[in-house]
Write the structure tokens for this entry.
Amino acid sequence: MRGKREITIALAGNPNSGKTSIFNGLTGARRKVANFPGVTVEKRVGHRKFGRYSITVIDLPGTYNLTAYSPDEKVARDFIINNKPDVVINVVDSGNLERSLYMTMQLVEMEVDLIIDLNMWDEVTDSDVEIDTDKLSRLLGAPVVKTIGNRAQGIDGLLESAISLVENRQNMHRHPPVSYGPKLDDIVLDLSDEVIHCRGCPGCRNPRWMAVKLLEGDEDIRHLCLSQSRRRGRLARRLEHALEHVRTTTRQDPEVAISEGRYGYIAGIVREVMKKPPADRMKASEQIDNILTHRYLGYPIFLVIMWLIFQATFTLGAYPMEWIDAGVAFLQQAAISVLPAGAFSNLIVEGVIGGVGSVAVFLPNIIILFLGISVLEDSGYLARAAFLMDKLMHFLGLHGKSFIPMLMGFGCSVPAIMSTRTLESRRDRIMTILIVPLMSCSARLPVYILFTGAFFGAAAGNVIFSIYLLGIAVAIIVARLMRRSILKSEDLPFVMELPPYRVPTWRSVVIHMWERAKIYLKKMGGVILIASMILWALGYFPRKSEYSRDYQAQIEQLESVGDEQAQTQIAELEAMKAGEELKYSFIGRLGGIVGPVVAPLGFNWQMGTSLVTGFAAKEVVVSSLGVLYHLGREQVEESETLIRILQSPESGVSNLAAYAFMVFVLLYTPCIATVVIIKQEIGWKWMLFSVFFQTAIAWSAAFVIYQGGRAIGL
Ligand code: GDP
Ligand code: MG
């Protein structure tokens, strides 16, 4: 038997065609499956054994085209050109054959070893459309395999087909050349004759493809050809000539002419292979869309759906929250009784269990929120929301496409910022990246839950909703300001993609939810655990040896009295002692610096310090408060939850200050992980801008709320 034992397979296709589902099927992985463009931002790699082959599968970003306009397209194209995978599987949404083939034709032209994966085949069988797959295979010169990605059906067929291709057992015809119509075909042929002399380019498996790309005005390819060609001047002249020729014969921009030619050819193929025009699925979708994306009704419906999800998050989440809370207290008591008293016991009880526990209680809320978003996403509604927002986004000087990263920002800024790679214009990317962190991410939720729980009682859901809306409002203002000042430029036209509605499958919703919950859990075990321990140490050390008075002696004296009054006095003395210790510690000194800065906002020094530590991750604000308030206490009383402590008059926090604090947490610098990603995506300058600008906005907003509120007597 001939053939390699190692095979590399790349998955290419439109967003939403089911690439990630196929990838999961092929590799057995449980990757995030998402229902809108921009989620699979980087290529993912998985492995699998099949027969005697070890197979590497790469999930490329979903794109509609293979020009190098957006970073996503560039990633996909560069991979195919430079890494030369043995097989490219083009995942196609069978219900959207015509549109999908636009990319397929380019893969055909690149003469890669191609398999057409007609995914979502279930939707074809459910409708009365018929697709002649044999004919399609002949017309494209590539094997065609039917699959149902979300149920992992047809995966073996794909693998077998891939192996046949590699072993050359399948005697495929060469791809017939794509025709752009008589006028263009000659020009393409002519130019490819010249391109043949441009040897040495990595992509030059096929001069015809290069010629088409040159005509399309592809800068990368142009640069490549002109820098490598041994007949540079001649190539440049002939290209100029060819472009001029296209312009005069078609009276169109060459890029448009090529694109129309390609669509024409595709329309021909579709006519050949499709028995009935696709109608049903789209029709049902259209009817639903008439309501959900209605010009006026659409917006209130969107708000109501979001509001319902929030309400569910807080009302349903309250029950498991109590259980976890009780569990944490139980663990602390258990640790106290097992471990000998001292620094280590204190570290475990306050630093580790207390710090992580104070964040863990919010896990149920977050899981419910993620569940809701996953359902919206998988059903196709999120894409509608983006469509609906397109007009509003234009008001910001952005497109509906930017809405998706913004919406994802409610989950976590990091993947949201990465998903901006689908945006073509750099200006849009910068602007979107800068406002994504203003969308309140789930890490901030624990802070809101804690403070609304302590101060706003039954109104909690509404108060939190208002914070989210405020984040959006600030984003709007910031975007408008930036567009007028530092980020002026022209709009690019684009088409908003609307996938058909799908009933979400449990499997995919749960995988999705789990993927996100896992990030949260990992954070608890990682950055939050470490931050809590560091914080504990900063609060525990340096140890104080001299106090303003002799607490020990006074306590012992009172203990010998032993009545009830003496007990309360002892407790008071212990609290005072703990307070002195905390003031003396590193964290107390930090608090001494931060305290005055946040005092005008109505925050006490513990809150100020927790904000500093919140730079590590916003949940850390809560765990810090947990550690800061409990440090030095010998006893953990069950009733003494953080909520109670905050409510008590001695904490000195008013409702107004609590609201200002939530606003501050909403707006101030993104967490370290986000900052790193911003730097990676758009550079130092914007990263620093983001950190300082946002913190300034946060301080000002909190100031206005607190001082303004007091002035009007709130
Ligand atoms: P990607 O954007 O190309 O990676 O597509 P995904 O794998 O994220 O899939 C998009 C959506 O289509 C998800 O909701 C999947 O559950 C769903 N899906 C994937 N394959 C099929 C299929 O064969 N049939 C149906 N009905 N749905 C599918
Ligand atoms: Mg994907």
